[in-house]
Amino acid sequence: MTALHPRLVSVYDEVTQRNPGESEFHQAVREVFETLSPVVVKHPEYADAQVLQRLCEPERQIIFRVPWVDDAGRVQVNRGFRVEFSSVLGPYKGGLRFHPNVYAGTVKFLGFEQIFKNSLTGMPLGGGKGGSDFDPKGRSDGEVMRFCQSFMTELHRHIGEYTDVPAGDTGVGARELGFLFGQYKRLTNRYESGVLTGKGLTWGGSQVRTEATGFGAVYFVQSMLALSQRDLEGQRVVVSGSGNVAIHAAQKAQELGAVVVACSDSGGYVVDEAGLDIDLLKDIKNVRRGRMSDYARERGLDHISAGSVWDVHCDVAIPCATQNELGEREARALVAGGVSVVAEGANMPCTPDAVRVFRDAGVAFAPGKAANAGGVVTSSLEMQQNASRDSWTFAHTDERLRSTMTEIHDRCLSTADDYDVPGDYVAGANIAGFTRVADAMLAFGVI
Ligand code: NDP
Q1: Strands laid side by side in the 164-167 sheet
Q2: Pocket lining: 243 vs ligand 1, CB cutoff 6 Å
């Protein structure tokens, strides 16, 4: 572990004491704090105004009961969360995650990360996150609809175009967002497009929003490779997961000439040396809601459930599944296999030990805060289109996404240079994200 600046030690200790058992939240706070020493030295006014203490305490946390009736007529009860972390730069913005392992610590870690990610984009967005321990997997459309309607029946009081704008995340895709928006509209009697992003194209959504996080991660990788006069042509790429982010990262990487040789789900992984068949993957995952084992069977390949997808040798690795999926062992396997670039498509998929292995081996490493910001960038573009009742073409929106990802990349590196940590994307992303928020907090006084 990197030592913390003395002015940050007591703040970190307070975070762990006030949020017991929330290990992912502690990890996310520690990761940011480890990079802020040069900021504390250069700008003592932030610590004097207790900016960090204030940022680690969400502005508002909502925890609520979500009762609904399953297809057998039984009453089910889940827990819903919305953590509104910071609104100094704009309305709270961040996705909703439906997954059985969601608890307060997951939502807080994601919301905390979101503050800095959103700030780093340069757009007018605050940070928040939400979700539920509901598992959509194996549920009928009717069950998912009844759950989403019940979830929104409580959530609608807390959100709004100028207040808090949720979006999708793991387990919350087009189907869930449709049910959520429909219930919001019904409860409020308002067609308030700007209240949710990730909407369907026929009812207020933006082109490229579905593809944005995966495409954006690959645009970020392009910028990383360009520093050493390389591009994606002929690169061997591995992604993890086979959800929204993974599929679109794989699609864009292959469009740019890479060969994506493996991806996974929680049941195992598949190696497809010819390059993933993206259309088949989309059909299995998005239409049939199938598994990687189905992909393996239909392509005549092995489905591997032992080990990890990170045992597959590659030049570029884009982890797109879930937090802490890539630990020290997996990082060592990647380094032994010759990886030179790792960009996080998921939120915090690499453990601190894994990041250390990459750093020691000279592997270029981009944190999710920077590399997966394409989703929120395009959400912001969706909000702009909704506000002006306009809709842009795919090509125009994609170009806005690409150029913004390049700006984010360059902002990380120029900030890292300014603070004497050249080439450190983690420090550059954290410091650039933090200072913009901190300056606004100083301007607003103690609120
Ligand atoms: P999805 O639910 O669409 O996909 C998640 C994928 O990861 C599934 O294929 C899932 O498999 C797989 N997975 C989950 N746990 C594991 C595991 N332990 N090992 C291997 N595979 C696993 O989610 P998204 O693609 O939307 O999100 C993925 C990540 O990206 C999350 O961290 C999310 O917070 C982050 N992110 C998403 C954004 C977005 O726009 N969607 C924006 C920014 C970040 P299975 O079906 O078996 O569970």
Answers
A1: 60-69, 75-86, 127-132, 92-98, 164-167
A2: yes
Distance 123 CA to ligand 1 centre (A): 25
Sorted by sequence, the CB contacts under 8 Å of residue 384 that are 6+ apart come out as none
Q: Is 185 a catalytic residue?
A: no
Sheet of 268-271: strands edge to edge? Answer: 268-271, 259-265, 236-239, 316-318, 341-343, 364-366
Task: Supply the CATH classification number for the domain 212-371.
Answer: 3.40.50.720
Q: Does residue 372 have its Cβ closer than 6 Å to ligand 1?
A: yes
Ligand 1, atom nearest to 269 Cα: 20
Q: Which of 129, 252, 285, 369 is catalytic?
A: 129
CB atoms under 10 Å from CB of 239, counted, come to 31
Q: What is the pLDDT along the chain (447 residues), one digit of tens a residue?
A: 788 999 999 999 999 999 999 999 999 999 999 999 999 999 999 999 999 999 999 999 999 999 999 999 999 999 999 999 999 999 999 999 999 999 999 999 999 999 999 999 999 999 999 999 999 999 999 999 999 999 999 999 999 999 999 999 999 999 999 999 999 999 999 999 999 999 999 999 999 999 999 999 999 999 999 999 999 999 999 999 999 999 999 999 999 999 999 999 999 999 999 999 999 999 999 999 899 999 999 999 999 999 999 999 999 999 999 999 999 999 999 999 999 999 999 999 999 999 999 999 999 999 999 999 999 999 999 999 999 999 999 999 999 999 999 999 999 999 999 999 999 999 999 999 999 999 999 999 998
CATH class of the 60-191 domain in this structure: alpha beta
Distance 286 CA to ligand 1 centre (A): 13
What is the distance, to the nearest Å, from the Cα of residue 206 to the centroid of all Cα atoms in its chain? 18
